[in-house]
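Morning run. Coffee first, then this:
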Amino acid sequence: MTETNVSVQTVETISITPNAAKRIHQLLSERDLGGHALRVFVSGGGCSGFQYGMTFEPDPRENDMQFSHENVDVVIDPVSFGYMAGATIDYVEDLMDGGFSIQNPNAVASCGCGHSFRTEGAQAPAEASGGGCGCS
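And here it is:
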């Protein structure tokens, strides 16, 4: 019998909390979007340099990374995934408001609004230097 060395590679994904999954399923149902995936992405802008975005995707692109977490199908482009690997998407409600939040281990600074972030090595935009969020 021959022994083989099998290496197991752990691939980080984006996690979704049960609260976020519940809200995503509610939104999909309310909007009659059966068969759609949650697209998560990063774009330039925001008061810290990058900003998060989410939308519902009917047709993932060929180069998208695709996975499922908490029974939610997720798609993300490879560039955005580089900024968000290991992140967790949550949904929080309080007396004043409710919304999605992202805890991103790759972010070294975040804006007060929680939708904008900066990674190591990226310079903060000049308008963020005043210390205030500036988001509305």
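The radius of gyration is 17 Å. Good start to the day.
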